[in-house]
Amino acid sequence: EVDRCINELGFKGLQIFSNTNNTVLDAPEFMPVYKHIASLGAPLNMHPAYPLNSIGIDKSTLVVPLGFLYDTSLNTVRLIQSGLFDEAPQFTLIVPHIGGVIPYLYGRLASYHSPTSHFKDQPDLQHPFGHYLDRLYIDTVCYHAAALQYCCDFMDVERILYGTDHPFGDYNLAADMVEQLDCSAADRELIYHGNAERLLKLT
Question: What 3-state DSSP class applies to 15?
Fold first, then answer.
């Protein structure tokens, strides 16, 4: 199906939910699919799904603004820990909604993946954990100008993609968040369209 979408239908990228059939995304049976997607040069967008761990997340007002972001963040970290980014260096992952909680927990994630005698189950990775976090793409959907500004200041602007959260979000608000960014006009154009054009090979 991946080959049909990319080679026959002309898809520029693919999407997966943040868990599949109540299974975490780093399950061994999924790895060959990710590696094949990577070999085709297609980015993979991880759209959030109803969280695997849903104790206490029993209302839509908890699932959508909180549970979704938790599930994408959890499964992103699990994919990194699996070694996939080492085994398939060309693997490209987009984590929507400004990367879930990852940008704000970057320091904690990087610190607790450093060599230590406190943990016996650390993943065997080729690079420091921050190396993989820096390879992620995020979008601009967050509904808060200061939060988006933090991501713009913290991350490589070439890894930020314009998002609207359509049909749930207000696309006017989404655009206004980008307009409020304290960044150069050139960076704003990258966010609006330049980064997506490069990533999806549209030009």
Answer: strand
